[in-house]
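Milestone 3.1: sequence recovery, worked example.
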């Protein structure tokens, strides 16, 4: 059984004010080329399909094209919601689409969706578990006490009654940790205060492979078969040295599971350059790499410069961040400008939604969104 493990697509994401739609389209085209050469039986997408609960029209259109292309190749697609997604939106038409081998599980209803695929060794059981929080599960399992993320995961898995003598794959979008081992985090991930959303990885160790989403850097957690595949695109400068890839998992008979990585090449890379304005604008420097790359530029000039961003963008059009490293200051001009431009495009409701996502680590529920809308309407009426 061969399958691809993907996660954290974040379709529609903007980085420092730059849309990543074309980058994402470019990566999806590479994945489809790998589909044609590798011929996997399935593609697993472990959450954070979209970057926002209410994705843009372009985001929905791009994902529609990707899913349609996968369906044409007769590949089973298994997808769960992440903390950035709207569970209800991803779950829409899931029963109809399952006939097309598209298994979309957005809203957790107390049971793990099970998808079984056959191979020469028998059956492989895929267990789909969307992003969950403890309050969501209270009352689903009688009087069972669910206070922590560990409690929530244990309750969900106990209810699934998994037969661990068979071959099982878990698909999950949570922050799993191994005691005493620090995870490799990125700036583009949400990071709730104190790691209160963490889950003990020992809870899921009995699965033959665990396809995780949430962390943007490819890594294992505790055991090699429990893996974050990472995001397919660099979404912050903390990732500019990372190599992005598709994780290919091949399962043989029980106990035999290997994986490898297929490289993903960006349309425009993300990198950092540092020096004086004169040096960085010289052909000796800008000819060394693609001028269209997304850049963080660190200027080391001691003298004050008039309109450094304008001068630099005449050569490097995709500057995301401009900082100064000298005796006088250390200010990120690019970040301030990008954030200001982003704020102008959002409604008051969406601004609050962004704030909620940043603080809580997940999108507002439908009921919470309704309450905010009603409060805003009352304020307007006044």
């Amino acid at each position: 059984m061969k399958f691809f493990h993907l996660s954290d697509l974040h379709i529609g994401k903007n980085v420092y004010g730059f849309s990543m739609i074309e980058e994402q389209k470019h990566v999806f085209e590479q994945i489809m080329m790998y589909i044609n050469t590798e011929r996997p039986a399935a593609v697993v997408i472990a959450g954070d399909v979209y970057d926002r609960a209410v994705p843009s029209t372009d985001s929905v259109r791009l994902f529609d094209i990707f899913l349609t292309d996968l369906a044409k190749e007769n590949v089973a697609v298994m997808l769960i919601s992440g903390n950035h997604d709207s569970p209800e939106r991803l779950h829409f038409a899931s029963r109809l689409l399952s006939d097309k081998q598209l298994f979309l599980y957005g809203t957790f209803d107390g049971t793990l969706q099970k998808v079984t695929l056959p191979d020469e060794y028998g059956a492989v059981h895929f267990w789909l578990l969307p992003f969950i929080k403890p309050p969501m599960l209270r009352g689903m399992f009688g009087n069972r006490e669910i206070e922590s993320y560990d409690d929530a995961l244990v309750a969900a898995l106990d209810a699934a009654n998994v037969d661990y003598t068979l071959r099982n794959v878990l698909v999950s979008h949570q922050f799993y940790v191994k005691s005493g081992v620090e995870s490799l985090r990125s700036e583009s991930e949400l990071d709730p205060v104190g790691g209160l959303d963490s889950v003990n990885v020992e809870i899921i160790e009995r699965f033959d492979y665990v396809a995780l989403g949430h962390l943007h850097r490819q890594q294992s957690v505790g055991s090699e078969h429990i893996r974050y595949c990472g995001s397919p695109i660099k979404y912050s400068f903390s990732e500019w040295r990372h190599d992005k890839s598709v994780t290919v998992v091949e399962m043989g008979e029980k106990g035999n599971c290997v994986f490898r990585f297929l490289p993903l090449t960006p349309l425009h890379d993300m990198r950092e350059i540092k020096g004086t304005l004169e040096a960085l604008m010289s052909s000796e420097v800008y000819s060394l790499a693609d001028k269209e790359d997304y850049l963080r530029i660190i200027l080391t000039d001691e003298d004050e410069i008039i309109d450094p961003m304008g001068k630099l963008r005449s050569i490097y059009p995709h500057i995301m961040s401009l900082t100064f490293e000298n005796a006088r200051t250390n200010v990120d001009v690019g970040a301030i400008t990008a954030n200001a431009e982003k704020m102008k495009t959002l409604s008051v409701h969406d601004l609050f939604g962004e704030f909620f996502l940043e603080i809580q680590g997940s999108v507002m529920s439908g009921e919470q969104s309704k309450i905010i809308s009603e409060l805003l309407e009352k304020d307007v009426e006044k």
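The chain has three domains: 2-263, 270-337, 346-381. The radius of gyration is 22 Å.
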